[in-house]
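Weekend entry, working from home. Most of the wet-lab plans are on hold until the incubator is repaired, so I used the time to fold the two sequences that have been sitting in the queue since the last round of cloning. Logging both here for the record. First:
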Amino acid sequence: MAITISILNEKGGVGKTTTCSSLGSILSSMSYKVVMLDLDPQNDLTLCSPIDPNPDINLFSSLFVHHKPKGVKINDHLIMIPGSNQLQPLNFVDKLKLDLEYQFENPRLILHQFLQPLQEKCDFIFMDCPPNQEIVVQNALAASDYALIPTVPHSFSLNGINSILQLIQRFRKLNSTIEPLGILMNCYDQRNSIDQAVWEMCQEEYPNLIFNTPIRINTKMKEHTHLGIEITEYAKQLQEKRIPQKFSGYEDFKEVIKEMLNRLKLEVHV
């Protein structure tokens, strides 16, 4: 059975998309079979991925036209179901009312039903969620085993953590097995005293949730997403070109994945 993980924070700009794409790319390089879903109508995960646009293959058309998952291959072990700007909360609800497949179903369980065919075909399903708590995010939580909460060392972003943890707690009435997988600190500058203070505060306040490795701020993270290149492929290119600067974000995500697999009691594939 696949492990389904929602990546969410109601605050924007905390690295949800970067986290999703990095975890998917690195895990697939370790021979895990991964499916990524872009639930955000801004389509950032889709835009930063090495895929060609196809109006017939996206999450919205998969849900309401094909009624089954249709994705795009990124590599031998990584599939993406691209996003759509039509996946707005009100449009989602309106479509459900008119769709014979779904009109009598619980509107918060549509993604859970939709993802069933993938459960035996992959190891991980990651959902990059929009920064809100509306119906699409509620569907993601209802379909997930775990929720991963990215944040950045800023008070505004930290305020969203407790809100998401409370949302997960409330959703146990609908999905009794969902658990927070952890909190991931992105864009961390170890030279900045404020970043250090916020990092220490998170370790004190969430000792069992915060991942031990923060993702250090690194221009190469921006470069590979801007160029639409997988993080593993970009790291390989830098190594071949003998670029002297370290790709610290890539190394940090590899450490986070080791810890994540340990939390999930899974084997680290080499």
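Second, folded right after the first finished:
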Amino acid sequence: MPEKTITLRLNEGDTAIIRTAKQREAYCHRRVKQDGRLHEGKFTFADLQHLATVTLSVDPVHLGYLLVIQTYIDYETGILVSGRQKRHMTRPDLRDVLKLSRPTFNALYANLERHGIICEDAEGRICVNETYHFRGTALGRDRLIKLYDVRIRKLRDTAKAVKQLGYLYRVLPYVHFRDNVLCWNPAEPDPDKIQAINKSALAAIMGVDVKTSYRLIKTLMVDDLYVFAEVTSGRDSTFIIVNPWICNRGDYPITLDSIFRCKIA
């Protein structure tokens, strides 16, 4: 039987609504989601089913630039665009956006082109292969993750090196579908069965030593928000969560917002 909401009429036409605890939780969750959408803004999709092949074959510096490049994908077309007029990008345009020298850009472009990630059409417009990244309808594709444009671009400006974005890119296939925990079985719905990735394994996935990966977890920030959170439960259980305001796979628990946004008084 559905729970009822009681509305009280107060003096001078004011009203007050009485909700059950369950209704209050659902209402708060909707409000946070609405607020989150306003803050998160536009997003692209990355297809996790195919992303793993990219993370293994492309070096972290170029992965970091790819993470930035894919934020410029146009809706449904896969063409890179810039500005409010959505002007189609050419190679010189993209090089300017990335602020790279010609030799560095040429090496990046050649590598991404060689792996079938980007290409040019007959008019010289740059396109991103929708097998890996796209913006638009996601029907029929369930292993997806949302990447939020503004924060990804800001992260490029605040990160000490673009390869740090590449390390973030490498862990995307391991983000849990609901809880944003980095784990070996990201499709597992049962919390008791989620197999969290430990620090040593995480460093191996990133392609760095444990000290470097731990430093990244502790320091990488954007808009006063940490990109990663280390959560410890008891004496031996420690796992890593990725900030859902950077990337997420859909609806996530409201507690994740508190983990990344609450401040110690």
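Plan for Monday: verify the second prediction. Residues 5-17, 31-39 have pLDDT under 50 and may be disordered.
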